[in-house]
């Protein structure tokens, strides 16, 4: 790691870790949604909304710390990008749950569970990686695996679209379901953005 003569503001590490842990909570709520009937989904959506608000608070705390800190552990732009991408993940997951409830979706198409499983794994990897920003150790496997998961998510998404457009669904149902699977795909993309930002930080700090 690059030698520094100046002290570093270390609270960012804890805030990034807390933000990533909250994303794990969101991914678990997505998993709950899969096995829930319509009557239970509204309550899951409420908990997801609370988690999303907690994510917003964590992001605002990072931005506040960034604006008030003279010394930062790494580039300010990278701190901003990392916080924003973590926030995007929670936003997309919360939106997906909310759409399922608002559209009164009775049954999600086969393949959505695979999307959510990919997101849950990416959430675990991200939460494990954030504490390693302190030392920049053991991060290479993280961003390689998240990129692999994003490629897997792309394949699942394309198969889901093909399934939705096979003529078995009513047109309005296709529009509703496509919006949900598209938002889940955006969440997978956001995980990749986080991993790419971490890689950028690690390269600069090496």
Automatic annotation (TrEMBL):
<comment type="similarity">
    <text>Belongs to the UPF0111 family.</text>
</comment>
<dbReference type="InterPro" id="IPR052912">
    <property type="entry name" value="UPF0111_domain"/>
</dbReference>
<protein>
    <submittedName>
        <fullName>Phosphate transport regulator</fullName>
    </submittedName>
</protein>
<dbReference type="InterPro" id="IPR018445">
    <property type="entry name" value="Put_Phosphate_transp_reg"/>
</dbReference>
<dbReference type="Pfam" id="PF01865">
    <property type="entry name" value="PhoU_div"/>
</dbReference>
<dbReference type="InterPro" id="IPR038078">
    <property type="entry name" value="PhoU-like_sf"/>
</dbReference>
């Amino acid at each position: 790691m690059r030698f520094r003569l100046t002290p570093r503001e270390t609270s960012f590490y804890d805030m990034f870790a807390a933000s990533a842990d909250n994303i794990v909570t969101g991914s678990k709520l997505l998993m709950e949604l899969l096995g829930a009937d319509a009557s239970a989904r509204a309550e899951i959506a409420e908990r997801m909304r609370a988690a999303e608000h907690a994510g917003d608070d964590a992001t605002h705390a990072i931005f506040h710390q960034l604006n008030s800190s003279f010394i930062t552990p790494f580039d300010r732009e990278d701190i901003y990008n990392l916080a924003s991408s973590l926030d995007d993940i929670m936003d997309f997951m919360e939106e997906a749950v909310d759409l399922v409830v608002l559209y009164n979706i009775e049954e999600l198409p086969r393949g959505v569970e695979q999307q959510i499983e990919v997101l849950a794994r990416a959430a675990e990897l991200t939460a494990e990686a954030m504490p390693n920003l302190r030392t920049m150790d053991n991060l290479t496997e993280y961003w390689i695996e998240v990129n692999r998961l994003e490629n897997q998510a792309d394949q699942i998404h394309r198969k889901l679209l093909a399934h939705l457009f096979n003529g078995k669904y009513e047109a309005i149902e296709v529009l509703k379901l496509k919006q949900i699977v598209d938002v889940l795909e955006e969440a997978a993309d956001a995980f990749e953005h986080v991993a790419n930002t971490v890689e950028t930080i690690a390269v600069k700090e090496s």
